[in-house]
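Reposting from the mailing list since nobody answered there.

I have sequence plus structure tokens for a pair of proteins and want to know whether others read the tokens the same way I do. The first protein:
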Amino acid sequence: MKLHASPLLKLVGERRYRFSLKVFEQWFAAQSLLDSEVDVDEVVYDIATFNRWRYVLAIVLAAGSPTKADRVMIALTRWNPGAAAWVVAEALRTPVQRTPSSVEFSGDLAPRFRTAVSAWLTGLGTLSGCLGQISWREIELSDPLADITLAVNIANDSRTLTTSWLSSDLVDGRRLPPTAANPGSYIGLTSVQILSEPVVTAANWVWARAQDDLSHMLDGSWVRLALSQVPADGVVHRELTASLPFQVTSEGIEPKEPTDIWPGPDVSPTPTAWGGYSEQRIYERTVAVLKGAMDAYLELVSSGFPKFGDTLGHHATMPLEFEGAMYYQSGNTLMFREPGFRYWLRPIGRPAHAAPSDNTVSLTLNGDFDDFNDYRDDRHTIFERYASENPELEPFLRFSAHSGRVGVLESRPATQIALGWLWQDLQRLRWIVGNNKPASFFCGSR
């Protein structure tokens, strides 16, 4: 039977056919990518193009031969590590209970693992500085692995894979090659980080494992790396400078009183109470902090995560409106009290003239406290409409409505809130695997 006469195809025009099932179309498209009949650069071009090809890319990674799949994945990870993380999750994160085949883990595993790590690091850019915890030299963005040696060993039962990350410089003056077969012999001669995880039972396991290792290293360093690149005239830098107990002048370093760039208390203290905020002043502070938090978030994304773009959930929602109700009772108290909130981040939409920075705040002070379930359901309908109107963003969007505190009275509140949003985005992409919330990097409340 001729193919065009089979039920696999549908006639959609003169001499034009379409596969009756999407999966057939995606399978043959994956083969065209693997066989270089379609240039991968035409696929990893922008987020809209990625959306059309994302399941095809997942098939490439799940079923493609290592040599061919690696070529596609190198281009994808270098272009956008957030999009590549989605593909890895779709193709390799489903638990498979089987013993790895000898083909999947035969020969020297380290060179291919190093290729995957190098591609991820190119996409991560500034974040490749996380390797500074291993290398004894400064990490060069042009070649982050220049002074790193990698080793890969699989356990005898083929269920555990151990990766060793070593500084290539040994204390005795010798220098290690890019990969090593017996890393244990160098312990005590150089800095070493060893990571053991269950084997990912797939031919293209290196892409998941390389991301996992790098995410462990980013857990303790991503905040520092992100903050180190922010602009000097931005919200993050201004908050930090104001909060420091010293200042740098022409005379050197001088002590100063830590301050705050946001509207402060306007209720005078008494002998028995600290004073605090009037309802109007706390409202002014809250609006200013929240707008500052959205600006700070964009500063952090632009400086530390420029290739991620709309694969970060909050960025995909912008421009947005922080919409909700705030509850606060003024008066002298023994401590500053955080206002309570019921809110959600409402996507404004993306007309041609809109930019992610066109964010707004819409808060009602001490308004009606509607049923939270009804509040959430109504907003979810709006959110679903936004996702359907922007299908390229849908894989990275997540709806949530919140009730509780935001932290507008904390030290450096805009930065803390922005880091919290970014932390959520990175966790969803598995670029952060720990539970060290950004607030733990700051101290004190106001």
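The second protein, same order (residues first, tokens after):
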Amino acid sequence: MRPLLILAEGQSNCMARLPYSWTPPSNLYIWDFDGQVDPATKVGTQFFPASSYSGVMGSAISFTAEIAFDNPSRDIYLVNVAIGGQAISHWLTGTSAPDMYAASKANIEAAIPLISSDYELLHFWWQGENDAGVNTNYPGDFWAHIARKRTETWWGVTTPTVVMAISPYVSATLTNFNRKIVEATSLDPSRLMFVDTTCLGQYLWDPLNGTPYVHMYAEGYRQAGKMAFNAIKYGLGSSVSKGSFNNPATGHQLHPNVPAFKASKSTASSAGIVTGYNVPSGIDTGNCFDDTNGAFVAPDDGLYMFGFNFANPAVDQPLVICLAKNGADITGTYVTATKAYESVSATTLVYMGRTEYVQAKVSQGPTGASAAATSFWGYFVG
């Protein structure tokens, strides 16, 4: 049977090896690169039996151990090239040191001759903490890194990647960044799978190691590795396809036609894009609506239904409302109220490409007054 080679990459949650007592499988072998102590320029020279690691546990070790336990007659090899604190830019062309792409390439190319020229490759990825809140182009950067790997002779055409979620217990910034990670996996659902580690309880995350709750305890990594294994064996992860959507905070896959929102505000809106929605509605499935800037961002290409309702204030002057797509008025969505307290509403279908956005707009407001009783809603049609 062909050997299985796992390349593990990422930041500290992929790198970490914490004290842990266990009995490793006899058919698992681990490459002698350790990002906890080795610089990115080091190239390993040999595989050690997993029995040498019976006193430590990490996410990549756990993941590959489960594969080995499940395939006792097959040799499993792990090359883990992960170093803490690295943004995804360190896997892209032209990066500053450390060049993590070069580190992985050098180590995997040194390891393959010691295994066999006929092997199967699997990719394990746990990274994103250093991009959260600062890298709005994470899906594109992730795709560029994967596309670059697909030019390598050692990377197969069908090589799959298991992508792990980052911690939900640190801040809203990290929690919501899982949306970007989910979006990255949606770029190639046939070969990318998202594993929702946010399902693991807070008791498995360490409040004392570095930033509280960014990292896991050893037992947390053991369970995260099992989750990743279950994802590839039983299809329990989220292979995110066009027309399927995930909660961006948790990564949970939802059924089609789910992204939907309803927003209201108790304060008046002057002429221009309506912002500052401040009345909680409890409806923002998919977390695609931003209360602050009033924008609904399409999670995928397709038709979306939108509606709005506005009321004129206590003046008999024209109030004109419309929808705006990517900042420009949408022709045919204008409605006008002319009497005091008159209410106007409208619904319309809008085709949107992924990441395009729609907002409600006061195209013309009454002199010396503003629109009141504002509501705005929408949902994905298909």
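Reply #1 (J.P.):
I read it the same way you do. Residues 218-234 form the longest helix (17 residues).
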